[in-house]
Design brief:
The protein is an alpha/beta fold. The chain has a domain of 137 residues. The protein contains twelve helices and seven strands. It has a five-stranded mixed sheet with strand order 1-3-2-4-7, covered by helices on one side. Strands 5-6 form a two-stranded antiparallel ribbon. Strand 5 and strand 6 form a beta hairpin. It starts with a strand and ends with a helix.
Amino acid sequence: METRKATAIPTAKTKPSTSSRVRKREQSSPSSELIYIHIGKCGGTSLWDAIQRSAPVAKRYPSIRKVHVATPPISHDADYLIVVRNPIDRVVSAFNWRLKLVVTDGEQKDRFPGEFSVLTKYRSLNALAEALYKNGVLVPSVAEDFLKIHHLRESISFYLSDLLTVIRRKQVFAVMATEHLDADVERVLGVKQVKRIHDNRAGSNAEKSALSSTARRNLRHFLAPDYDALNRLTRLFPVAPETQKLLMQ
C-alpha cells in the first residue's frame, strides 16, 4: 500500500464521464481519505500517476492511499476509486506481461515459486485456458497452474468481493474502465495526458493474445467470480451502457 498526503491546489471544472459517474458526497460529511484500488493489468500504474497529478483529487482528499496486490481495507470513513477491465482481456494482458518479465527477459524468474515452470510449460494463455477443463470438468492441476501466475492469482474478485458486501454507493468516488481510461482520467481527474507506464501492448503480438473458442469459453467459466464482482460493482455504481457491455463481454 502507498499513502500520499495531497497538497491542495486550484481545481479546474471537469465534465461528467461517459463511462464513469462521480457521485457527490454531502458537504456536511466529507471523506478525508481516498483509497485507490489498483487491480493488476488494468492500467493502474498509469492511473496512479494521474491521480497524483489531479487538482480535483488533491483539493478534495487530504490523504490518498493505493492498494495493490492486497485486499483493500474496509472503511466507512473513506471513499474508493476503482479501475477495472474486461476479465478475459485482463488475464491475456497479465499472462503476456509475466511471460515477458519471467521467461523472455528473465528479470523475475525466481520471484514467485512455480511461476517460471508454468509459463514455460504452456507458453501461451490459449494453451493454458484450453487445458482448464476436460469434458466440461475443471482440471484441478491446471487450475493450480493458472493461480501460480502473478496477477492471475490476484483476480478482480480477489480485490472486490469482500469490499462489495460492505461499502455504500456514496463511498464510490469513481469507477474507471481500462477501455476508456484516457477519457475517464481527463473528465474525472482533470488530467489530459496519461503517461503509459508498464504498457506491454507494443511487446505483444496477435499470436500471443489469440484465443480459440474453447479457450475463451473456458475462461468465461473459470472467471465467473470476476464477472460476478463486476456485475455487483456496476449495480452499486452504474457505468455507461457501452462500458458495461465491454466489461461483461
